[in-house]
Amino acid sequence: MLPLADIPSPCYVIDERRLKSNLERLNRIQTESGAKVILALKAFSTYSTFPLISQYLSGTTASSVNEARLANETFGKEIHVYSPAYKPDEIDEICSFAHHIVFNSLSQLDRYYYYLRDKYPHVEIGLRVNPEHSEVNYPLYDPCCTFSRLGVTKEEMDKSKFDFTKLDGIHFHTLCGKHVDSLERTVEVVREKFSDLLHHMKWVNCGGGHGLTYPNYDIDRLIRLINVFRKEFDVDFIMEPGEGVVFGTGFLVASVVDLMYNDMNLAIIDSSASAHMPDVIEMPYRPEIEGSAQPNEKEYTYRLGGTTCLSGDVIGNYSFDKPLQIGQKLIFKDMAHYTMVKSTFFNGIPLPSIGRVDQDGVFHLDRTFTYEDFKARLGNVNFTKK
Fold it and tell me: What is the CATH number of domain 4-12+250-335+343-376?
């Protein structure tokens, strides 16, 4: 249970007790398979939790200069970097932090490879390949969809004159919230298309999208898969989950601000799907609320919406045992991944605070956001009233 009386509204809350349970599960994968599990910062970058996470995971993977810098300052351990494209004015800063850097295209590989080998010989270089094998049905989240810009196809590689055996590793990513069977099918395609190259690599990175901490994820099956693959190709095996690290560990506490009626009961909360939980609209999906049920399963059904002026800023329809009350706090579940990293100041609505519940059940408020935070994102100009 969360100590609701101590938590402001709205507020993202990470339960470190749940997080530790996830990390112990991930560490078992590392221990029994020899794989490296690293945190994907694009999904979760709340660094107040890094002292705990870094006790278990092998490092982080960053998608930008800012994420790599954050990893260097707050996490330590290995820093892996991948981006669809690097600008010339950021490559040196990235390589001052990175242990691995992965390129997305042959043109970027050709542009930077020898420069990095000469100036940053300690940084291992990889290439993202596109196995052209889709495991995700929704194109927005399918890295191998038609015309994908993510990764190099086998056909492109065959046409190139680059000696790919000079690489340290290859990276592939085909998953989004998937189980081990999806990884098995992808690995088989990668083995078939890139087998000759794999024998020259130091490591293989199978990206993210692994639901490693889902209750029904078959960890034993995964460990067997990794052990067979590592033995066959004598490589390090790297996984970079984001959601899979923090699944089920985070909450968004929000309060009812107003109640209305328009052919059904409506409730407006002091948060927003659009600004604070955007995957509700983008995926789309309906987050669970503690103590609620599907519409009409319980006596009182409401449609919950946010405080932005976007007409589609709707979280979903929920039923409750009792009528909602203005000021009542609601607990949205599984709000760690792709929330804090994607939240915005749309409509000038304040960002939710950020806090943690520690191993003893004590709440710690780590960050609040003010008008000055909103203003600073939009400029740095001093105005004098006339």
Answer: 2.40.37.10
261 phi and psi angles, rounded to 5 deg: -145, 130
pLDDT above 70 covers a percentage of the chain that reads 99
Whether the Cβ atoms of residue 248 and residue 217 lie closer than 8 Å to each other? no
Domain boundaries, the chain: 4-12+250-335+343-376, 34-246
pLDDT the model gives residue 386: 66
User: Is it true that 4-12+250-335+343-376 and 34-246 share their CATH fold?
Assistant: no
Residues in the chain: 386
| pLDDT, tens only, 73-89 | 999 999 999 999 999 99
Q: What is the mean pLDDT of residues 337-345?
A: 98
The mean of the pLDDT values for the chain is: 97
- What is the rounded CA–CA span in Å between residue 129 and residue 115? 22
Q: Where are the alpha helices (DSSP H) in the chain?
A: 16-33, 50-53, 65-74, 91-97, 106-119, 154-159, 180-198, 219-233, 243-246, 273-276, 279-282, 371-376
Rounded CA gap, 256 and 318, in Å?
A: 13
